[in-house]
Amino acid sequence: MNAWIEKQKYLIDFTLSSLARRKAKNLGLLLVYTLIVFLLASVMLFTHALRQAAAEVLVGAPEVILQRMVAGRHDLIPPGYLERIGRIRGVQHKEGRLWGYYYDPVVKANYTFMVPGNQDIAAGTLLVGAGMARARGLAVGNLISFRSYSGKLFSFTIARILPHDSELVSADLVLISEADFRSFFAIAPGYFTDIALSVANPLEVRNVAAKLSQQFPDSRPILREEILRTYESIFNWREGIVLALASLAILAFAIFAWEKASGLSADEKREIGILKAIGWETGDVLKMKFWEGALVSLAAFLIGYLAAYLHVFRFSSSLFAPVLKGWAVLYPRFELSPVIDGFQVATLFFFTVFPYAAATLVPIWRAAIADPDAVMRG
């Protein structure tokens, strides 16, 4: 065993010296190879971290949201729906929610006005997201005015700016008291935007949704898992866009790598002929060239993946963020938690390292089994 290990060490040492003799060519290959791994790994790391962040945000979301539909559009929940829902078995908690959108012509952006169910807000005050505060230059204690859709002007005091840590979901959020919300949007008492439901048994969520559809045929139940699946589809779609844009670079690298792997230069053929002439066996030549391909591909993979990790989690994925996160006037500023999926790493490793390392063996084998004189003359 020790003799085998020593032999591999000598082969690796010889391979490194062989690579150093063709420094410019191999550095160019390594640079292009690393760039491709960097592009692919950055997209995979960023989208996976976004999926994890979305899943964490939705952990506290209600299992079922009931929306009333009129002519195929979302409408207000009328009085009496909450009481009727209470008679459905399996519903643990129900809450009428008030939220809506408001377009601000000053910054040309939409805000999400919402009445929080877990805290009281004083009349005439607002809690605003950090994105909105930046866009409007707001600070605690400032006054801000909005003209409602009825034409009436409302003035509010900024009581607090929501923490930066929540900016992923609160960049455009405006928290307001129930009385101010109903007055601002002219919504009568007893009406709600939708109803949030908690189900005692997670296995009964779909049964509860089916009962809601039967009892309220004019309404649409939305499950938390459906929302998460929608986010998953959006991230997959955006990831596909970036990978499609990178496909030309990937194709160019594939052609470049295949050309290198499928043919040997005159220097490489001469080197193999000399090794055969001084007594190297065919298996030794194959092992040496295999190590050459493996070292280049492994170095490219490690450098590219490390650079992608730093790009995504230390520099906020500045190259791909606008495409993968989407575009908005009130752009959220947030840092993703480092998340690495072992299956993704293994998949990327398999499709970037193995094909190149394996492709180098075919032309090497052809040269290694040939007569040394013929190889050196060729």
UniProtKB/TrEMBL annotation:
It is a multi-pass membrane protein. It comes from the Bacteria. InterPro entries: ABC3_permease_C, Lipoprotein-release_system. The chain crosses the membrane at residues 27-46, 240-258, 290-310, 346-368. Pfam families: FtsX (PF02687). GO terms for biological process: lipoprotein localization to outer membrane. GO terms for cellular component: plasma membrane protein complex. Residues 264-368 form the ABC3 transporter permease C-terminal domain. Keywords: Cell membrane, Membrane, Transmembrane, Transmembrane helix. It is found in: Cell membrane. Belongs to the ABC-4 integral membrane protein family. LolC/E subfamily. This is ABC3 transporter permease C-terminal domain-containing protein. The lineage of its organism: Bacteria, Pseudomonadati, Pseudomonadota, Betaproteobacteria, Candidatus Accumulibacter.
